[in-house]
Every structure is written in structure tokens, then in C-alpha cells.
Design a protein that fits this description.
The structure holds two protein chains of two kinds.
Chain A lengths: L3 E6 L8 H10 L9 E9 L2 E9 L8 H4 L6 E3 L6 E3 L9 H5 L6 E2 L5 E2 L5 H4 L6 H5 L5 E5 L6 H8 L2 E2 L11 E4 L1
Parallel strand pairs in A: 1-10
Antiparallel strand pairs in A: 1-8, 2-3, 4-5, 6-7, 9-10
Chain B lengths: L5 H16 L9 H4 L9 E7 L8 E7 L2 E7 L12 H4 L2 H5 L8 E3 L8 E3 L2 H19 L4 E5 L5 H10 L3 E3 L1 H18 L16 E5 L9 H12 L3 E5 L12 E3 L6 H14 L5 H7 E2 L1 H8 L4 H8 L3 H13 L4 E3 L11 H15 L47 H10 L7 E5 L3 H4 L3 H9 L3 E6 L11 E4 L19 E3 L14 H11 L11 H11 L4 H7 L1 E3 L22 E2 L3 H5 L19 E6 L13 H4 L6 E5 H7 L6 E6 L8 E6 L6 E5 L19 H4 L4 E2 L6 E2 L4 E6 L2
Parallel strand pairs in B: 6-7, 6-13, 8-9, 8-12, 9-10, 11-18, 13-14, 14-15, 19-23, 20-22
Antiparallel strand pairs in B: 1-2, 2-3, 4-5, 4-15, 16-17, 19-26, 21-22, 21-26, 24-25
Classes of the chains: A alpha+beta, B alpha/beta.
């Protein structure tokens, strides 16, 4: 069984938000909402500044508070790649998952269900990469199976210095930022 | 909850207006196109075209799902996008669904600028225009109709206007953007940089960016190559008063005092010459006037430059040595928007000279020799011979201008000298935000008998027009063939993917119909643009059917580097690289660039700098709802210490007031460590005041509105715009 995750090279990323726009068009994300977004972390005092640009989204965690707290079972771990998904028909829009997510990755779709990144599972199941990965003009994003030691993501995470977001939240996130 | 989606809404309204349009005077000419969407196709259909959200024109694949426009992606065959569009391109479908789009031809019914209109048919609009044009021709001559345009879509309108006898054509891309750079390089190497830039970024071992903020400035090919250069561990050197995204990738970041770049360039060249780090063989073989240049440069030590630039002399030395170490694969990027201080052609010349010292012109990792596909033009009748000269640059006042000067036409329109300008045609450029000093633009407009704007959105300049003609968005129209010179020759097609939702028309149709109204039908021997395209393609041994299928057809690769045998030839008076420029000297200018101090900000004021965001093109995308969801307004960047002094908090709204008392819209403050304390920065293109542009109206502030002052480059007429200062007006 695969366990999908991402490695994002912050050295190459320029924060252009193509990932955000591609996700919007690929998944018809409604106006006023985004499933992924850019965070720029600046540290230091001018001119000695350090920037880290992060393309953020649902971390498809191994420990999923959003699934645990869902009263209907709409939030679930998909059989392919252990991707965390929401069944729109089962979701009652109670927002418990929105509150439980340390990454603020979910929003309520105008049609009333909790919505978020799906790792473009509809594409992945056709053998394609997620839209954000495939569009990136800097080729800074990598997607693959974290359980396969030979996958490009696994090799990058093993060989490059990296960090996930909010590891202290204990959710075991599966997106790693290469620094 | 929004139960009727925007897409559905547009479909409904588009249908009803389309039905009305069919009864209007012109029978629809887009016979084949009309059918595109009507048959409900099941499944996915992919149609190649090329993008128009900026001028880079990347090859695009448009996806239709069950006959509806779904998304666009890059065309993998395209040498420019390499299959990956930039965010603006990816958001291109937002231009189609933009609810603020112009839908019908409009004729002004009240004062100019009041934006009160009546909707008219195309027949009425074009009759109105033709009648006014005939009057202008009779009274003043056809030279008194001028045109401003941006992008390939203007080609057919220009053709009609040339057939009419117009001669004054200009684009802000010269005097408000890349003009100084191209002139600086022409004076030095005898050739301009061109667009796309002939910069071999991905093979550079050392890349120097001076105010050029690649990554934020999202010119697709360049950013892709920049990311490759970063991944290849190229040494990046960034000079910028603002800690740009590119600066965050740099080995050396030089936080320069704005307006002192020439001093830094002179000091860099001083180090490279005095320590004999330059490409001696290259300079000896190809250089002219090196001795005089070297003598002149010898006075500009890093210690001399330090008090001007604020850059530590050691950092100047180290970065100069870094450049020299990687020569000739060191690319000192020439930039693109280079109209900063009015001495910009000389600054660009200094950049050219630094590249010359490093031997990077013509070399791999430097400046390559671009190659392009070539197809014969369409055999049109000759244009009428003009009885007057162009008036943008009378008497060659700006002797090295190599293209027409927009602001020269504006000036002549105001003064009526050397002859009156009575008509303006404006295609796809928002002159209100593109030209400095909006009052002068509005003053010029008052002297016109006819002002026509052709555009897809009601930009601010459309608000001042007499007639507004709604153009189809690029995904709804054909355009001329795309054959930009770059590393690989190619020809690309723009073709309609979906129908226009209302009564919009493609520019070729507008231009052809106007020509017919003007009695110039003989200039359009073809009845549909497909015939025109087919003619040109057949003449080159290609077919329209194949190009429509593939989107891009590649030509044969040719050598692009001196290393591969391209001869190094220089179209300068000496036939060499002009370290010392006799033609500048003869025209009364510095033959070797000199540094002159810029005027400094009054106390309590900060220099206003502006630039680009990756998700917007100029002031043309702020009603694209997809792009606005990624960046809906601009912010003013204020250094943390400055903010503290003024008591400004992050995200607080302020207004900016410039040295002439002009006050901006409200804008949010971004308190940051990423900028110097003597300047502020904002992204260009926001703060729209066109009432018709609802999605953009009042969002953020306009830098252009604050650019009341500009300094004209005496070499080429460019308008230096980084010469304005602002202070903060607190919101009560």
C-alpha cells in the first residue's frame, strides 16, 4: 500500500502561486477559496534576511484528527495512497474537522461540505501528478510514495535537509520542505 | 450560498445576447467557430493556442470538458513555456468568465471620463468611427490619427490604420519600459536585447540581477531558467533596495541605495579592469576604445562608490571577483522595466559594458543569438505615402530612440506641434496607468476629436474613450502567427477555443470591418483570417490544418552561441563593442557612463518604488476573479523601523501622498524587514478607478497615480519614474 506525500524544494520555489491557480482551475475551487496557498516566512533584520517560501495545503497526515472527529465518516483515509478525503455526500458541514486541523487546510464549500486538497487523487489514479506539481514552473514540487524508499520523494527527504510543518501537533504530516 | 454558478450565469446571458447579435447588421463571419460549442461534446477535448495574459505568448493547451472551457495548461512542445504556464496563464480562463468584461460596443453620451454610454451595434460604432476618421483626414490629414497598442493583437488594427495613412504608432513597452535597456545595448553591441530576452539564464554560472525581480516578475521562460540556475548552484548576485524573492536565493545581496546603480557598476568595472580580471582576449579582439574607457573607469574605486551606494567596498570587490571567476558564463541581466531615473540608457550601457568585460555577449551562459521561424508576409497593397514625418521625436530630439515614444505623441497631442493629433486608437494598453503623469494624458485627450479603445475589459483608459469596442478574449479568437525569436525557432497559432459570450469580436474582424467602412476593403483581400493564416503558412510549406492540430511547429535548430560558430559581429559605427562611444560623444553625451546623484527625498518622504507580482499583468488582470483570489489588492512595503517611527501597524490602511500633494487610494501597510528605510514599494497595477471594472475598483492603490513626476532620458526619450517621493496620510 502506497502512502503518498510531497517534498517541496524551498530553494527553487519563488512563491509564484501557480500551484494555487492550477488547483483552482483543475478542481473548480469556488471563488473566495483556495485549497493551497503560499506562506513566506522572513527572519532576520534588513539586509540580513532569510526567506522560506512554503506552498502549503492539507498535509494528508498519518494521524488524522480530522478523520477522528468526523461524526459521519465523511472525512476518511482513502484506500489509494492513504490520501485524506471528504465524501461530499456524507458531510453535514459541522466544521468539526475545520477546528481540528492544525494547518487550517479546510473550508466549507458553498455547497455545504468541508473541502480541501485531495492530492488530485482523480489525476493520480490516472497516473498523472497532482495539478500543483505538474504546473510548477520551477519544478520545485515532488510527489510520490513515502513508503517506497526508492521513490524520488523518499530519496529527496533522505538526502536533503528538510522539515514538515508543525510537527509538534503530533499529526505526522506528509509534506516535507527541503531547505 | 451561490446556487447558480457564475459559469452557468454567463452561459445563459451569453446565449441571449448572442441571439440578438445574429440579427444585427453584420452576418456572423466566424462560421466555423460558431459551431465550436454548439454541439455538446462529451468528454475532454484539447485545443492548442497561445496565451495573452501577458506578452510572453506561451503555448497553451485549452481543455474543454463536455464542451465547456475547463482549464488551460502549457503546451509541452512550446520552447517558451516547456509545457508549464505561469500563474497568470494558468488563470487565463478567468479572463473569459470575468463578469466585468466589455460586452457590447459603446458610444459615449456624456463628458469624457464620466463613463456614461449607450450600447450600440457594431455597424453604428464603426460608422461613427469611420465618419470621424474621414473628417480628420479631410481637415488635418491621416497622420493626425495616432495609435497606442500593446501585444500581437494590435497587428490588424495597425494594418487598417496604415492603409488609412496613419504613421504615428507607439507602445509603452519602449519609453515606459524596456527602451533604455535596448538602446544601451544597441550603443554598445549594436543590437537590442529584444523580447523574449536573449539571456541564457539556465546556463549562467553567475547571474547578476540589478533590480530585476525574477520570480515576482513572472516571465515564464526566464523564471524557469532562473530556478534551474538556482538548482545548478549558480552564484546569484542581487542588487535591490528591497530583499526580493531573487535576493533570498543570492550568494551576495547588495542592498543598494536607490538611484546609485551606475556608481556600483562603475566600481565593479573598476575592480575588474584594475585587477585585470576581464576577458582580455575577447576585449582585445572585439573591443573599441578600451584604453579610454579604462582610463575613465580608474577613478571609480569601491571606496569611491561606498558613500554613494551604501555598499561595503569589500562586498563590491568580492562580488566583482565572483563575476570574473565564472566568465564568460556570467550574465549581468539587462532587466526589462528599466525606466527609473532618466539616465537609464547610460545605466543600461554600463551593464552592457560590464558584460563586455566578462565576454558574455554571444557566449553560453551569457547572451545568446536568438533564432526565429520565418514566414513570408501577406502580399498587401502598398500603404499610402505620408506627407508628414512622425511626430513623437521631432528633429530627433532624442537621437538614440530606436522606437516611437508614446509620451512624445502625448506631448504633440497637447501642444498641436509639429502638427495636431486629433484621433487616438488605443489597443489593449491602459494608458492611464501605463504613462506617467495622468493629468497630461487626460489633457491630451481633451484635444481629440476621436478616441477609440479596443479592449477586453473596461480599463481606466476605456472610461475616457468616445467609442469602446469589446474584443474577444484570446481563448475566443484567432490572431497573427507567433514566431518570437528565442533558442528554438517555432511558429505558434492562436485559435478560438470557445465562443465569445456576448457581442465581442476578434481584433482582425474589427480591423477588417473598419477598413471596409473607410473604403479600404482592398487592403483585406481575404474574407476570413483563416485564409490569411493559411496563405502565410502555405508560403512556408506548412498547413493551417496541421498547425491548428499541433499548436506549435518547431523549425530546425540553429547555433545560438559564438562557441558553436555564430560569428561575433557588431553593428556599431566601429564594428566592435564600443567601450568608448564616439557617437555618444559627438551627440554631446558621455562616451563612457558617468554617475550623477539623484534628487533625494524631502524629510519625512520615501522614494516610491514599484514592481510586479507573479499573478498579475500590468493593470490588466485585476478583474480576473481567479487571479484576484490569489492577490486581491496591493500593499505598501514599509521597513519595520520606519513603521515604528510612524506608529504604523501591519495591515493598517493608510493613504500615500506624493511630493505634488497627490493622495492615493487606501492601501494596507506591509511592515517588513525586506526593504531599506529610505524607500517604500508597491506592486503596480492596482487602485483602479474605472467604475465599470467592478472587481478591481478601489482595491489597493495605484503607483501610477503617484507618479506625477518623471525625468526624460535625453538619449532616447524614456520616462524615468522612480523619482517620486511619498509620505503617509493616516486614516482616521
Amino acid at each position: 500500500m502506497a502512502r503518498f506525500g510531497m517534498a517541496i524544494d524551498t530553494k527553487k520555489c519563488v512563491g509564484c502561486m501557480d500551484c494555487v491557480v492550477a488547483c483552482k482551475t483543475e478542481n473548480n475551487v469556488p471563488e473566495g477559496h483556495n485549497r493551497d496557498w503560499i506562506v513566506t516566512v522572513a527572519n532576520g533584520k534588513f539586509p540580513n534576511v532569510n526567506l522560506e517560501i512554503q506552498s502549503q495545503r492539507c498535509n494528508h497526515c498519518d494521524n488524522t484528527p480530522c478523520v477522528a472527529c468526523c461524526p459521519t465518516g465523511a472525512s476518511h483515509v482513502h484506500e489509494v495512497g492513504a490520501v485524506v478525503l471528504v465524501d461530499h455526500n456524507m458531510c453535514i458541514g459541522c466544521k468539526a474537522c475545520l477546528a481540528s486541523c492544525p494547518y487550517d487546510a479546510r473550508f466549507v464549500h458553498p455547497d455545504g461540505y468541508a473541502d480541501k486538497c485531495t492530492f488530485c487523487i482523480h489525476r493520480v489514479e490516472e497516473g498523472k501528478l497532482p495539478a500543483c506539481v505538474s504546473v510548477c514552473p520551477t519544478h520545485c514540487m515532488y510527489f510520490g510514495d513515502l513508503d517506497d524508499a526508492n521513490s524520488e520523494v523518499s530519496r529527496l527527504i533522505a538526502s536533503r535537509k528538510n522539515h514538515p510543518l508543525l510537527p509538534e501537533a503530533g499529526t505526522s504530516p506528509r509534506i516535507f520542505y527541503l531547505i | 450560498m451561490n446556487s447558480v454558478s457564475r459559469r452557468k450565469f454567463l452561459k445563459i446571458s451569453g446565449f441571449s445576447v448572442g441571439a440578438l447579435a445574429a440579427t444585427s447588421a453584420f452576418s456572423p463571419m466566424l462560421k466555423g467557430v460558431d459551431k465550436l460549442n454548439k454541439e455538446k461534446l462529451k468528454g475532454i477535448k484539447i485545443i492548442p493556442t497561445y496565451c495573452d495574459i501577458c506578452f510572453w505568448k506561451c503555448g497553451t493547451l485549452a481543455y474543454l470538458k463536455d464542451g465547456e472551457l475547463w482549464k488551460v495548461e502549457g503546451n509541452p512542445k512550446d520552447p517558451l513555456s516547456k509545457g508549464r504556464l505561469c500563474p497568470r496563464g494558468t488563470g487565463g480562463i478567468g479572463a473569459v468568465t470575468d463578469p466585468d468584461r466589455l460586452r457590447s460596443p459603446l458610444i459615449r453620451t456624456r463628458q469624457r471620463g464620466e463613463e456614461v454610454w449607450k450600447e450600440v451595434t457594431w455597424n453604428e460604432a464603426l460608422n461613427y468611427i469611420a465618419e470621424k476618421m474621414n473628417k480628420i483626414k479631410a481637415q488635418y490629414g491621416p497622420e493626425s490619427v495616432a495609435s497606442f497598442s500593446h501585444g500581437i493583437g494590435g497587428n490588424f488594427l495597425k494594418h487598417t490604420l496604415k492603409a488609412y495613412g496613419a504613421i504615428n504608432f507607439a507602445a509603452p513597452s519602449f519609453a515606459q519600459c524596456r527602451g533604455p535597456r535596448d538602446v544601451g545595448f544597441e550603443l554598445t553591441f549594436g543590437e537590442a536585447i529584444g523580447s523574449p530576452e536573449r539571456t541564457d539564464i539556465e546556463n549562467a554560472k553567475c547571474l547578476v540581477l540589478i533590480g530585476s525581480h525574477l520570480g515576482e516578475n513572472m516571465h515564464n521562460t526566464q523564471v524557469q531558467e532562473f530556478a534551474n540556475a538556482v538548482a545548478n548552484d549558480a552564484s546569484i548576485i542581487v542588487v535591490d533596495p528591497r530583499f526580493s524573492v531573487a535576493a533570498s536565493k543570492a550568494k551576495y545581496y547588495l542592498p543598494i541605495k536607490p538611484g546609485t546603480d551606475i556608481a556600483l557598476l562603475l566600481a565593479w568595472m573598476n575592480v575588474i579592469v584594475s585587477e585585470k580580471l576581464y576577458d582580455v582576449e575577447y576585449v582585445t579582439k572585439y573591443g573599441f576604445g578600451f584604453e579610454q574607457f579604462a582610463a575613465e573607469i580608474s577613478q571609480y574605486t569601491p571606496e569611491w562608490a561606498y558613500p554613494e551606494t551604501g555598499i561595503d567596498p569589500e562586498l563590491i570587490r568580492k562580488s566583482a571577483k565572483e563575476m570574473a571567476m565564472h566568465k564568460p558564463s556570467t550574465l549581468v541581466h539587462p532587466g526589462r522595466h528599466t525606466t527609473w531615473y532618466g539616465d537609464d540608457a547610460q545605466r543600461s550601457r554600463a551593464i552592457a559594458l560590464l558584460n563586455a568585460l566578462l565576454g558574455s555577449w554571444g557566449r553560453k551562459g551569457g547572451f545568446y543569438f536568438p533564432v526565429s521561424y520565418s514566414l513570408p508576409g501577406y502580399p498587401y497593397p502598398a500603404y499610402p505615402a505620408p506627407s508628414k514625418e512622425k511626430l513623437d521625436n521631432p528633429g530627433r530630439k532624442y537621437p538614440f530612440a530606436s522606437e516611437e515614444i508614446t509620451t512624445g505623441i502625448r506631448e504633440a497631442t497637447i501642444s498641436g506641434n509639429p502638427y495636431p493629433i486629433k484621433g487616438w486608437f488605443i489597443y489593449a494598453t491602459n494608458l492611464i496607468q501605463a504613462l506617467p503623469n495622468q493629468d497630461e494624458t487626460i489633457k491630451a485627450i481633451q484635444n481629440l476629436d476621436l478616441m477609440v479603445v479596443v479592449d477586453v475589459i473596461p480599463s481606466e483608459i476605456a472610461g475616457w474613450a468616445d467609442v469602446v469596442l469589446p474584443e474577444s478574449v484570446y481563448l475566443e479568437r484567432y490572431d497573427d502567427l507567433h514566431m518570437s525569436a528565442n533558442k528554438t525557432p517555432f511558429v505558434g497559432i492562436r485559435q478560438p477555443v470557445v465562443d465569445s459570450p456576448s457581442d465581442q469580436k476578434p481584433n482582425w474582424w474589427i480591423a477588417k470591418k473598419l477598413a471596409e467602412k473607410l473604403g479600404l476593403a482592398n487592403y483585406y483581400p481575404w474574407s476570413h483570417i483563416e485564409e490569411y493564416l493559411d496563405y502565410r503558412l502555405k508560403a512556408g510549406g506548412l498547413s493551417l490544418a496541421r498547425l491548428k492540430q499541433e499548436g506549435i511547429i518547431l523549425g530546425k535548430d540553429k547555433p545560438i552561441y559564438a562557441e558553436d560558430g555564430v560569428p561575433l559581429e557588431f553593428n556599431t559605427p566601429s564594428g566592435k563593442i564600443e567601450f568608448y562611444s564616439s557617437q555618444l560623444q559627438e551627440a554631446g553625451f558621455d562616451p563612457v557612463p558617468k554617475f550623477k546623484r539623484q534628487e533625494q527625498a524631502p524629510s519625512g518622504y520615501y522614494r516610491l518604488l514599484f514592481g510586479r507580482a507573479p499573478v498579475h499583468s500590468f493593470s490588466r488582470t485585476q478583474s480576473n476573479r481567479i487571479l484576484m483570489d490569489t492577490m486581491g489588492e496591493n500593499e505598501v512595503w514599509v521597513n519595520h523601523d520606519v513603521a515604528e517611527k510612524w506608529g504604523l501597524k501591519n495591515a493598517q490602511s493608510v493613504r500615500l501622498k506624493n511630493q505634488d500633494g497627490v493622495i492615493s487610494n487606501k492601501i494596507k501597510v506591509k511592515v517588513t524587514e525586506r526593504i531599506r528605510t529610505d524607500c517604500v514599494y508597491m506592486v503596480h497595477g492596482f487602485g483602479h478607478n474605472s467604475k465599470m471594472l467592478k472587481g478591481a475598483f478601489g482595491k489597493g492603490a495605484s503607483d501610477s497615480g503617484l507618479v506625477t513626476k518623471y525625468v526624460i532620458d535625453p538619449l532616447m526619450g524614456g520616462t524615468g519614474m522612480n523619482v517620486n517621493f511619498v509620505t503617509f496620510e493616516m486614516e482616521a
